[in-house]
Write a structure and sequence with these properties.
Length: 452
Amino acid sequence: MGMIAALKVFLDTLEEGVLFLDTHRRVVEINEAAMQVLGRDSGQLIERLCPTLFVGTQCARTCEVRGGCALTPSPGEARKSQDVTLERSDGSEVALRMWAMLLPPNDAGLYCAIVLRDRSREVALENEVRERWRLGGLVGRTPVMQSLYAQILRAAASDASALITGESGVGKELVARALHDNSPRSGGPYIPLHCGALPETLLESELFGHAKGAFSGAATTRIGRFEAAHGGTLLLDEIGEISPAMQTKLLRVLQEKEVVRLGENHARKVDVRVIAATNRDLAAMARRGEFREDLYYRLRVLPLEVPPLRERRDDIALIAGKIAGELAERYRREPMRFARGTMDALEAYDWPGNVRQLYNALEFAAVQADGPLILPRHLPPEILQPAAPAAPTHDRYAPPLTRYYRPVVSPDEERGIIRRVLQECGGNRAEAARRLGMSRTTLWKRLSAEKG
């Protein structure tokens, strides 16, 4: 048996799929596992451009923007991998983990090998674990979300106060609920309170309760949220909005573990785990004297930060699919399907309002569409034409743009800005896109239009 034939037999015994690509990213050779994973035979795979095999995935989009395999590591760089969910020709889905390795110079013209590992069973197990641990409200498979799940489960085992931080709309309330549901207090009450929605006088009554006649309109005695949450969990949402006076009263309750109702003089013991949430920088507020430092540290025993949607773009398709199912049930209609251009637009947008904004955008699209297929034109205008930043300047020492970019200048001026930033970045398109505040897809389209 010749060396080539022996190598083919060896490759066909591997559990991972392997695709060999030439310098043009065309598939030159594959093994049996790759055909099984992709659900195609060699005749359907050989000579195909690699990105066309993974259409609709973030990996393919990044590859198209870069003009080369995004997974191939630079010399001395650690292996890069990416998880994707691929729809096969028969309509079934397969979860894959992909990585690449550069090949040494060879007579066969092979440039790199793409390795495919089937993660379907692993993902099914992850979903089972998530449901078992009651994390179903949180959606995401990216590393930052996997890390958050682990932090939640560790924090849930403790009875200490937790502070959940993150931008508006990221799902801080879902994290708080997951903490309660997985804690020893899960059989007790879970009481949420939005601190920013109430004036100070009413907030004090809501938190601590009041006696009959304590103030005008207090016709009956009423227990507060602390007493209502006895034996369970109290979520203080938007904790950064409370006044200095209320901060002092809250600190006393956390220290003494007792409350005094308005209009009464005697204290009542409470057994409550407090979870606070905010989209504000409490540490900076404490440094400025706007938030009590001792209260900050009392609340922040277990810090949890929820990442914004723009930092986990690979989760957008997954979250959009979940929202589509919820909207279909709500409106009693066929589940929404997304055209490729629609998903491209969703993944390119920066989502300043995070998951909440994504939900609202898809609900808008569901109303605009006549059928189940959501096209780009069905999305809200701001998704396709994001708000422009301040007018750009030609000062070479001016700071780079940091918001999602839309030109407010002529096409020639725009091309000049892009060329200048690309030159400053040494031709690194990813860095140029970051400085310009646009997605790499948008940058690629601008460069393609210039070449055309």
